[in-house]
Each structure stands twice: as structure tokens, then as C-alpha cells.
Amino acid sequence: MTVAYGSHCCMLPAVGRRPSQVDRARRGPMRHAEKASIPSRYTVTRAGVIEMLAGRLQRGDVTPGDLLTRTLAMTREPALEAVFLELCEERADREARASAGRHRRGRPLGLLDGIPVAWKDLFDMAGLRTTAGSRLRLDSEPAREDAEAVQRLAAAGTVSVGKTNLSELAFSGLGLNPHFGTPANPWSTEQTRIPGGSSSGAAVAVATGAVPFAIGTDTSGSVRVPAAFTGLVGFKPTAGRYPQGGVYPLSRTLDRVGPLAPSVRDAFLLDQALRGRRPSSPATPALRGVRVVVPEDPVVDDADAEVRAVFTRAVEALREGGARISRMEMPSLQQARAAMRQYGSITAAEAYAFHRHALERTGRAVMDPLVVMRLYEGRNMSAADLATLHCVAGEAQRSLRHELAGALLLIPTVPCLAPLATPIAEDLDRAHRANRRVLANTVLGSFLDLPGVAIPCGLNAEHRLPVSCLLCGASGEDARVLATALAIEDALDDAGLWHSPAGRFLSEEL
């Protein structure tokens, strides 16, 4: 069956009120954008984007208005036309002016004050519609107030520039969207590759340097997968670490807010702000003596050969950096995988329950066929089966904690490289298989409520595409996972394996 993703998006005009992707979606389906390119003359250092920009702002080298002007200029580039669904320029200008005043008085709110941020279009922002990437919500009422996460970063002084594209209803790991267009992976070369999803626009906005960081959501891998495919750091927290209020739901049990950023240091600072704390620069702990388990399991062994090769080099770099690497079977992973195979998906069941009325009324005619297919996978799950899945998840979480015995878990974030966009977009069955493949590892972390940091760990030899490793801990070990990820990032950098996207925000022009 063919999925009709339509024609290419039109270019944004340079002046006047620019039609948003929401406006364009009313006129018909769109396909993926033209591929963007990584500006290789710029680099991101270990210090990360946030601390670098904070220093420049505090010294007066740049102003919040300069950063906002750069972001808005980049949104006009053809390669980014499927990245932002809606801009909030008046709000951003107001926030940038307020930040500039604080900096002039020498009283910034902290490291994030004056730095632009983009939000996946699941977050309510006062005065804007929350489309969830779906035509079903084009005429929804504008939000009356900001989501709690938006409020927390606003309290830290960030400048919210707008909302980014996503897979429809956040229910795909591929990042395709036939209504608003599909953001092109900026690591694409001859042919456009998918960005990963569902936080596709957020990832591409950061990877191209349009914004220094963005906030997405992750239910089965929707932050970690696009981070892996675009060479970013993505963090999925344990349940309850960040507020979910004002975030359009997919699975109320598994939905998590999560940051996408160029470095672990940036993600660490965003973690503090999302918890309502004043961000402070982290100290990187020693890697020597840290116990890391690489499981003898399909999450490693079934990865494509080119992914395994890069991952193996990364593991050896950590060993040389002093980490104590061990391999062992992990029955908890087998238990989780078997339960999902037998009973189905918690996400599909909860998503179908939430969307079933819209789906049955008008949804099938106007929705992405891949999303429709996945929603119907949850239609026949009984309440007893759903309860059993939650019970097994709890048992497997306890087993995993016992198996790790204080160690951390390291696996490939995604078992394959970013696939080409067109073959997947034109074939529903292929898209469905690809979706299962890209989510194969991250869905286990969601089922087991494992905090996980996706960390770039090298480029494959043939296509020079990013490969990512996923560092996980037992539920609730977010702080330890983030701290250890700092040390891992440094070790990979020492070995020449850390390839952060080149951020235009670190241009000498600023």
C-alpha cells in the first residue's frame, strides 16, 4: 500500500507575515523538505552551547536580540521550512527584550537567560494552537496558558521562538508527516534521510543550529531516536521527573518530556531547569571504575553490522578510559520483550483509548495511514492484558535493578542508520517495519521506565552518518546516568568518536 506524502513544501517568503506550516497544511499534503547540510566550519566544544552563549551574553558580546534575529533568519531557509509549524515572534521579541534588560542590569536569571528554545508542538503555549502534527487539530482552540515545562524554562529566562514539527500525534519513530512536511535529516548526503521521530522538527532545529536546544517528548523513543539519527544528545527521564501538565498526551503512562541538545552538558543544565532549579555548571566525574554492562542480548547483537562496528569502538574507548565493562545476559530485557510480543503495546492501547472517537468519526480519512495502523493495534487489547503488561513491567524493573547491581547499561540507541526517506514514505508496509526497527531498543527503556541518555559515539565508515549509544540506569537513577554520561562524552571525545553537530550559534559572527 502506498502512503501519499504529496509534493515538496514551498519556500517561505523573506518578509511580511509568513504562512506557517499549519496554514500550508490546510491546502493539502506535503512531503519531506529539501535536505539541509551541517555547517562544518563551526564546532561545538565540550563546554556545550549553553555555557558558551551564557558567557557571551554576560560579557555583552551578543544580546538576546542578536540570538533571536539569527534564529528567525534561519527559519526562512528552505531546508528548515518543514521544521517549524508556528512561530511566536511577538512573544519571543518580548522575552528577548526583557532578558536584555536583565543582562544590562547585571542580573540575569541564570545560564539560560536570553537563549532561544523551540518546543515540539505537543506543548501548550498561550495563544497558539497545539496541533500535535495532525489535521484533526487545525481548528482547535488556542491554549490559554503555557504548559508547565514551558513555564519553567520561561522562569529561567529562555526565549521561546515557536513550535516544531512532529510525527502525527507523536505516534511514529520515523518523523514522517504527510500534512506539514517531513524535516530532512541534515546529515543526508545524496538522498534525503529521515530525521527520526516523533520529535523530528525539534531535532533538526538543533542539529542545523536554528536553536541551541529544543524540548520534545518521548513515549517509546521519540527524543532518543531523532537524537541518534541527527547526532544529538537526547534524554528520557524517569516518570515524574519533569511536569507533564499542558502536554498533549499519547500514552499517559509512558509519556515523558525530554530535552534535545548538542552535548550532555547542555542536557544536564536543561534537566536542572526543567526541574525548576537554577542551572549550574556540572563537574565531570571520573570514568575510572564505573561499572557498565553491555548486555548479551538482541539489543546489541541484532544491530546492523555498521552500527555494531561503531558501538564496539565506543565501548573500547570507554574501557581504555577506565570504565569496567562487562557482558552478561539480562533476563529482564527478555521478559519485557516477551510480554510486549504476547500482549501488545501499552502505548497503542492507551493511544487508541484516547483517540478512538476522533479516529472512528473522521480520522481515518485525514490521518497518516501509518498512525492509523498503529492506533488500531491497540483496539483489541483487553483491560486484563493491559493490567498484565503493567504488572510485568514492574516485575521486570525490579529484576533489572537486581541484575545491574549498581552498574549502568549501555546499548546502541537505534540498531540501524537513518533510513532513506522516500522508500519509506511511499510504502506503508515498509514504513511499519522500519518503525518497529528504529524503536526496538528504546521501547524497552520506556517499558522498564529507565532513564536514558542517547550520546553520539561516532560515524559509520561508508555514509558518515551518526551512530549513538544509549546509557541507561534503573528507574530513578537519572542524576547518576546524566553525571556518568558527562564522563562518557569526554572519553568519546578523547578517542575522536564524539561528533556533535556544528552549531551556528557558535559562529565567530556572533
TrEMBL record:
InterPro entries found in the cross-reference section: Amidase, Amidase_dom, AS_sf
Domain of life: Bacteria
Gene3D superfamilies: Amidase signature (AS) domain
Species of the source: Sediminicurvatus halobius
Signal peptide: none
A single MF term (Gene Ontology): catalytic activity
Residue span, Amidase domain: 84-482
Protein name in UniProt: Amidase
